[in-house]
Amino acid sequence: MTVDDSASVRQMVGFTLKAAGYEVLEAKDGRDALAKLSGGSPLNMVITDLNMPNLDGIGLIRTLRQNSTYKFIPIILLTTESQTEKKMEGKAAGATGWIVKPFKPEQLLAVVKKVLG
Amino acid sequence: MRDGYGEAYREEAYELLGALEQSLLELEKAPADKEIIGSVFRAMHTIKGSGAMYGFEQIASFTHDIETVYDLVRSGKTIVTKELVDLTLIACDQIKEMVGAPDGAPSDAVQAKQIVEAFRAFIGNTQRAEEPDKAKDSGDSEKTVAQAEAIAVPDEEKTAIYRIRFRPVSEIFLSGTNPISLLRELSDLGHCKIIAHTEDIPFLPDINPEACYSSWDIILRTNKGINAIRDVFIFVENDCMLTIDLIDRDDFVENDVEYKRLGDILIDRGDITPEQITEAINKQKPLGEILVDAGVIAPDKVESALAEQAVIREARKERQAKDTAGSIRVPADRLDALVNMVGELVTVQSRLSQAVVSLENLEFSQIAEEVERLTAELRDNTMSIRMMPIGSTFSKFNRLVRDLSRELGKEIVLSTDGAETELDKTVIEKLNDPMVHLIRNAIDHGIESPAERAKLGKPRQGNILLSAIHSGAFVLIQIIDDGAGLDKDAIFRKAVERGLIMSDAVLSEKEIFSFLFAPGFSTAKVVTNVSGRGVGMDVVKKNIDALQGSVEMSSKKGEGTTVTLKIPLTLAIIDGLLTRISDTFFVIPLSAIEECIELTREEAEKSHGQNFINIRGEIVPYIHLRDRFGIVGKRPRIEQIAITRHENHRIGLVIDEVIGEHQTVIKKLGRFYRHVEEVSGATILGNGTVALILDLPRLISKTQLEEKNALCERLIN
After folding, report:
1. At what angle do helices B2-29 and A7-19 cross, to 10 degrees?
2. DSSP element (H, E) containing B690
3. CB distance B65 to B123 below 8 Å
4. Closest approach of chain B CAs to the CA of A87, in angstroms?
């Protein structure tokens, strides 16, 4: 699942991953993501932006980690260079890793491959 | 990438800019409203971030400083002034203009620069004090970017051995990290031995299933360098105890193959003290066992150290072997001369063996046997010198694929499998042209354009796999693409159109695909630079036939095409079955023969001249070679049939007598006989007579054609 308030980032992530053969769900912020997951549908990983309206990336990670279905799945945080402390905060909340924006499709795929093993 | 999605970015940017203007106007009225400041920052942030991702570098860099200013505002380090709002509104217009431009460049570069300067002045004025902090921040980010890039491009380094001790915190699972996948990633870096330490795992009732109790020692031999190893652990750096030590390297000047002894390694690691070892050694049992018995160390620790010792010993031995062995370059023609001479020697040797039999002298026959054995060994060794891995040919195609796919606007990855498979040098050389044709075909008609692939739900990138595997006396080379596949119906229609078959013919898939090998046959709608002229596949077939090999195609529409080339290992000497008809000798390649049976006169008459024989319930057609070649002489009462397999059909060849296996040194036929298609060459027998080597595929297909024609004529008359 890719969570981002920017449609273009969502599209880029979705497009890159779909081209590599992954199935991708999209959500426009943390609240939307939780709403879409309320059915408890299984997920392999989440790629979420940090700054989002309604519920930001860190809030989303905290909530997902409370849920037994999503407790152990990899969650990747999209951050920018100016957010080093946020990165650490995300890590503490339970993010598996991060990707620094802007990133290239190859970098995204390398990270996805890494955390999915 | 940019074309289809640049639009998405533009739309979003316009939308954001519209909202941004609104926010800025509100901000002018309420300059301290945190919510509005946050939304302005986020808009700038998105415009910048997405811009860079979609390749609008200029927009990204233009927006960077504006974002920085609003970050400062957001964190309360500066305040919103009327000038700032004015400036931001001007910047908005500028961005709008840049987004509209096809390459994201400003029409008035000077003006854009002035705006950026103005924002920089803002940062400079208000935030000098924060400068050191900022610098540290960006330095850190550079490092992360560099690390992320390192994942993609590992730097080539010398092979070295590292000892990695990885002890994740027990809550590691809660961050979605799977330590096993990290270990797997490590083992992808090189040769790797992993020892798990499990002594901390509590008994079942005390286990918390969500905690990680294990730790690992990894001995890794890799040439990717220490940074690649660190990259594996990049996300867990702060969630584990991780030590990476370089323990051996290929250029360490230690000629001793032996690495440190177990005790030394343990002391080195601080797992044990020297005193404990001395004490243990006195007991004269294997050291590891003693240590475990003595309870000074857990069994895994010993195992881990032993693994380290083994890996390094192995590495050093290998290195030493490499230093001493080496290789010499020899001109190819000398090698060819050697092979020729070995061929002669094999011929002479068989003459010798034959002569000795008639002499009935025990001493001589012993010597002859010795010579026979040595000749066979010499032959095998010589042939193996000419064997080359096919990988060098495979790698040549990388460039071809790259250039061609770029020219045709396709995205194609070439991967290879079995590059170490060995084939005779001359065979490899002759394979080059047919393979170029086949790969061109795969790129041009096989793989679809990226847009088309995306539409079909396939990955944009097409794949071509070259694989080689041994199969008896043959090597199977496959060119597999995941493109559009062959259109069976189109080929069929084309074959009808060209008058090759009747429109109501019932054909198997394989038979239909085989039309592709007909001269001048092409279903390509457009003749491109690369292919589609219909020359190619027939040339491929001709080349492969000349190598005594065969070509086969299989395909699933929409899923791809596989071309299989079956190539004999060598062209110089083959194992053959020597047979005789009257006083003419024929050699049939042994690899094609499945069995030999007798054909009595009565049995032959039973089939009423239809040339079929019933073998254990299976009807097998046969070719009467005596009739086929018009050999005069009396037919023996009992003839022999050598049953061969050709393209999944069993076909018999009738001869007078099977003499036996024969080491066949292949000689070319003289110029006068080149046009004889049924014979691929000749060989000289021990007694000096010449035996002809049958070209089975051509013999069979030619006979089939003749019989078909004869049948047609009979039907017409």
Report:
1. 160
2. strand B690-694
3. yes
4. 11
**Which is nearest to B302 in space by CA: B279, B269, B257, B256?**
B269
Farthest CA pair distance, chain B = 121
Q: Which residues pair with B644 in a beta bridge?
A: B593, B651
Rounded to a whole number of angstroms, the CA Rg of chain B reads: 38
What token pair was written down for B463?
A: 């794949």
Task: Say whether residue A92 is in contact with chain B using an 8 A CB cutoff.
Answer: no
Residue identified by tokens 């000497």 is: B573
CB contact under 8 A, B12 and A8: yes
Distance, CA of B11 to CA of A11 (rounded, Å): 13
pLDDT classification of B285: cutoffs 50, 70, 90? low
Phi/psi of residue B109, nearest 5 degrees: -65, -35
Please give the Cα distance from A83 to A70 (Å, whole number).
Answer: 25
Domains and CATH numbers, chain B: 6-152 (1.20.120.160), 155-325 (3.30.70.1110), 332-386 (1.10.287), 401-568 (3.30.565.10), 574-716 (2.30.30.40)
Residues of B in contact with A106 (CB under 8 A): 152
Determine contact, residues A50/A2, Cβ cutoff 8 Å: no
Choose among A8, A51, A95: nearest Cβ to B9.
A8
Residue B652, H or E segment:
strand B649-655
More confident residue, B529 or B414: B414
Element (H, E) at B217: strand B215-222
Kindly state the tokens that stand for B562.
């596989």
* Interacting residues of B210 by C-beta distance below 8 A, sequence separation 6+: A71, B173, B174
DSSP B154: P
pLDDT of residue B579: 93
- Contact of B594 with B645, CB cutoff 8 Å: yes
d(CA B16, CA A53): 14
**B215 within 8 A of B167, measured Cβ to Cβ:** yes
Provide the β-strand partners of residue B551: B565
In whole angstroms, how far apart are CA B273 and each of B295, B296, B430, B640?
13, 10, 65, 80
> Chain A neighbours among B 602-621 (CB < 8 Å)?
none
| Residue B148 in contact with partner chain A when CB distance is under 8 A | yes
* Rg of chain A on CA atoms, in Å: 13
The percentage of chain B sitting over the pLDDT mark of 90, rounded to a whole number, equals 3
Which amino acid, residue B327? Answer: S
CA distance A7 to chain B (A): 7
Residue A54 has pLDDT above 90, yes or no: no
Residue located via tokens 């005779």: B424
Give me the residues of A, 31-50, that contact B with CB < 8 A. Answer: 45
Nearest CA in chain B to A53: B39
Q: Is A67 on the interface with B (CB under 8 A)?
A: no
Average pLDDT of chain A, as a whole number:
82
Of B338-342, B481-485, B579-583, the range with the highest mean pLDDT is B579-583
Q: At what angle do helices B82-100 and B57-74 cross, to 10 degrees?
A: 160
Could you tell me which of B618, B680, B675, B629 has the C-alpha nearest to residue B655? B629
Q: Which residue has the tokens 């070259």?
A: B466
Locate tokens 């989440």: which residue?
Answer: A46
Whole-angstrom Cα distance, residue A92 to residue A89?
Answer: 5
